[in-house]
From TrEMBL:
GO terms for molecular function: isomerase activity; oxidoreductase activity, acting on a sulfur group of donors, disulfide as acceptor. It comes from the Bacteria. Residues 16-159 form the Thioredoxin domain. Pfam families: Thioredoxin. Keywords: Isomerase. The keyword Plastid does not apply. It comes from Merismopedia glauca CCAP 1448/3. PROSITE patterns: THIOREDOXIN_2. This is Thiol-disulfide isomerase. InterPro entries: Thioredoxin-like_sf (IPR036249), Thioredoxin_domain (IPR013766), TxlA/HCF164 (IPR044241). SUPFAM superfamilies: Thioredoxin-like. Gene3D superfamilies: Glutaredoxin.
Length: 160
């Protein structure tokens, strides 16, 4: 610490001779880090969803990524009809976003929606019994990626 003070004094003396103003030599302030807010543990989703994996799509009509993955999600809806729940949370405009907030609240997805509503073309596969996100995809049109996670989730839920 003493050598730092002497160095600061020496630099200050040289600077005053050269004519550089003092704010350039300001010693950085040490700040205490703010406490880290730890996210709450996932919670089970609404009772009516707990029998099957839940696929949540953050969607907007103006989103190119959403248009890119729409055919894939449509095929998945057909392939997993009766085996998975599909929920679309539409953030196209203020009105649809408010409706999606209400839907998210109804299904126990409020925290997920709050954290992801600005991430259009995000699709998450969630274990409804625990609320845990099994896999999150962003603008991924590969149907096999989704099927791999869904098949595993369906098999796991049947065992319990």
């Amino acid at each position: 610490m003493k050598s730092r003070s002497l160095l600061g004094l020496a630099i200050g003396s040289i600077v005053s001779l050269v004519g550089i103003t003092a704010p350039l030599l300001a010693i950085p302030q040490i700040s205490v880090a703010q406490p880290i807010q730890i996210a709450r543990a996932p919670r089970p989703l609404a009772t009516e969803l707990r029998d099957k994996p839940v696929v949540v799509d953050i969607y907007a009509t103006w989103c190119p990524g959403c248009q890119n993955i729409a055919p894939t999600l449509s095929m998945l809806r057909e392939q997993y009809k009766g085996k998975a729940h599909f929920i679309v949370l539409d953030v196209t405009n203020r009105s649809t976003t408010r409706e999606s907030e209400a839907k998210a609240r109804k299904f126990g997805l409020s925290e997920f929606f709050s954290a992801n509503k600005s991430q259009t073309s995000t699709v998450a596969i969630i274990n409804p019994r625990t609320g845990q996100i099994l896999k999150r995809f962003h603008n991924n049109p590969d149907q096999n990626d989704y099927s791999t996670v869904l098949d595993r989730a369906i098999a796991s839920m049947k065992q319990r």
